[in-house]
Amino acid sequence: MSNALNEARRELALANRIVANEGVIDAFGHVSMRHPENPNRYLLSRSRAPELVTPDDFIEYDLDSQAVRTPEHTQYSERVIHGEIYKARPEVMAVCHHHAPAFMPLLATGIDYVPVFHLGAVGGIRPPFWDQQDEFGDTNMLVVKPEEGASLARALGKNWLVLMKRHGVTVAGTSVRDCVFRSVFSCRNADFQVRAMALGKVDPLSPGETELASVISSKTTGLVRAWEYWSMRVAKAGGLPASSSKAVRRPAKVKARAKKAKRR
Ligand SMILES: [Zn+2]
Fold first, then answer.
1. Domain with 83 in it: what CATH number?
2. Which tens digit of pLDDT belongs to each residue from 103-145?
């Protein structure tokens, strides 16, 4: 495995642990990334709670969400969410699907998400809703069929968030870090919005403010600063992922040579 791929796997494992640590994801939900060396593939963990994901847990999928090699472990059932978005949006490099408590009041009522503070702008103005019932009738609510994933990707359109009625949210990003940034701060915004609505009329950001504030993560050092902060919080909780056991190691011959040189 190349060092770039190995590093990407570690970053993705950390991303899964960050969104868990920040209350976006619990036992369910997942973060994936487009394969750094092959845009027609993506990496998603085997089926396990994101807080436990390690760099060795990732399964490589094609964009039809078929595993490239027969997986040794159980797979997430909702992986078509990821594959169909990567298929529809070539610029999307990471996807997070979650059922965060902060969003549930909006998802249960169909009330639009609106940015109520500057960082909430990363979710956009009134991101679209998708209701599985509209196209597929009664289901178990999980997005498991390719046509269900494709329908969700169509609803996402050019947005970064799609709100799934009575289910959860799917977030797209231009990188793993961008996707985590949008996931965490849209959850904070949803939480503030619902609490503000209980107090009175909400006064959201104007379209112009939303547009200007939404580039904070890409045009300033905000993304780096937030990633460092969230990583430190995971470290303090003792949850940093180890490097992959498949990391590139020095071949035995090189090691033996080094040993010999030391003895000289
Ligand atoms: Zn789900």
1. 3.40.225.10
2. 999 999 999 999 999 999 999 999 999 999 999 999 999 989 9
Cα(79) to ligand 1 centroid in Å equals 10
Domain interval for residue 221: 3-263
Number of independent structural domains in the chain: 1
Over residues 22-48, the mean pLDDT reads: 96
Please tell me the distance between residue 258's alpha carbon and the centre of ligand 1 in angstroms.
51
Task: Tell me the pLDDT tens digit for each residue of 208-252.
Answer: 999 999 987 677 788 999 999 999 999 999 888 887 666 544 444
Catalytic residues: 78
Q: 101: which residues sit within 8 A by CB, 6+ positions away?
A: 23
Partner residues linked to 170 by β-bridges: 97, 162
CA of 144 to the centre of ligand 1 (A): 9
For ligand 1, the distance from its centroid to the CA atom of residue 205, given in whole angstroms, is 29
Q: Which residues lie across from 41 on neighbouring strands?
A: 62
Q: Near ion ligand 1, which residues have CB within 5 Å?
A: 168
Q: What is the distance between the alpha carbons of residues 9 and 16, in angstroms, rounded to a whole number?
A: 11
